[in-house]
Amino acid sequence: SQQGEEDPQALSIQEGENATMNCSYKTSINNLQWYRQNSGRGLVHLILIRSNEREKHSGRLRVTLDTSKKSSSLLITASRAADTASYFCACSGGGADGLTFGKGTHLIIQP
Amino acid sequence: DTEVTQTPKHLVMGMTNKKSLKCEQHMGHRAMYWYKQKAKKPPELMFVYSYEKLSINESVPSRFSPECPNSSLLNLHLHALQPEDSALYLCASSYLIGSDTEAFFGQGTRLTVV
């Protein structure tokens, strides 16, 4: 299985602080994506990083990918209460046609 | 239009009922997916359609029957479900299978089997 494993499973920080979530996976990938899910509804795509990329930025988001360690991290800077959600990494490739999701990190931003 | 629309939003059904979940996208995507998500768990892939043909069936029980009538629509027919099938069912689409593009998800159908 190429399922991603995230840590921490839960993270609670103060508004304005930075939040870092990590993801590890097991097999080769085409790309790794991060999604946000609010209150058990639909998933919103945040950022995609390809296997030949090492770092990517989008607004307050920064994603890194280390294919030698089969790991990725998502950094959210200057967190806001609205960032409270569950965050999932998802792997694409390695012979699978759909996305394989990690277990997720539940992020709580305290106002 | 970058939306994936799922109906209904909520569904309660008995174990002897037959119901269908519907999903629609108008982004021209040729890959469509059904995922199942239990509470506090990640989504798990159920079915993949590529160009309206079933590409993957991840060993899903036959009480779940997918259908892709055209490139914009995806259905999931439900029959004789069990209480443990209660979950959030998510539909998604992407440009092509294996393409380096994101998947777009609908808001899901929250299914309760009684």
Defining key terms:
heterodimer; A: 111 residues; mainly beta; six-stranded mixed β-sheet; 11 strands; B: mainly beta; seven-stranded mixed β-sheet; four-stranded antiparallel β-sheet; 0% helix; globular
Question: Which regions of chain B are unreliable across 5 or more consecutive residues at pLDDT < 50?
Answer: none
Task: Give me the secondary-structure category of chain B.
Answer: mainly beta
Q: Given the C-alpha coordinates, what overall shape of chain A results?
A: globular
Relative helix content of chain A? under 10%
Q: Outline the low-pLDDT stretches of chain A.
A: none
Taken from the alpha-carbon principal axes, the silhouette of chain B is globular
Number of strands of chain A: 11
Name the helix and strand elements of chain B from N-terminus to C-terminus, one letter apiece: EEEEEEEEEEE
Describe, in plain words, how this protein is organized in 3D.
- The complex is a heterodimer of chains A (111) and B (114).
- With 111 residues, chain A is mainly beta.
- Chain A has strands at 5-7, 10-14, 19-24, 31-37, 43-50, 55-58, 61-66, 71-76, 85-93, 96-101, 105-110.
- In chain A, a hairpin with a 2-residue loop joins strand 6 and strand 7.
- Chain A is globular and about 40 Å long.
- The model of chain A has no long low-confidence stretch (mean pLDDT 91).
- Chain B has no helices and 11 strands.
- Chain B has strands at 4-7, 10-13, 18-25, 31-37, 44-50, 53-57, 64-70, 73-79, 87-94, 104-105, 109-113.
- Chain A binds chain B through residues 30-31, 33, 35, 40-45, 48, 50, 88, 90, 92-93, 96-104, and chain B through 4, 31, 33, 35, 37, 39, 41-45, 48, 50, 55-56, 88, 90, 92, 97-98, 100-108, 110.
Helix and strand arrangement:
The complex is a heterodimer of chains A (111) and B (114).
Chain A: E1 5-7, E2 10-14, E3 19-24, E4 31-37, E5 43-50, E6 55-58, E7 61-66, E8 71-76, E9 85-93, E10 96-101, E11 105-110
Parallel strand pairs in A: 2-11
Antiparallel strand pairs in A: 1-3, 3-8, 4-5, 4-9, 6-7, 7-8, 9-10, 9-11
Chain B: E1 4-7, E2 10-13, E3 18-25, E4 31-37, E5 44-50, E6 53-57, E7 64-70, E8 73-79, E9 87-94, E10 104-105, E11 109-113
Parallel strand pairs in B: 2-11
Antiparallel strand pairs in B: 1-3, 3-8, 4-5, 4-9, 5-6, 7-8, 9-10, 9-11
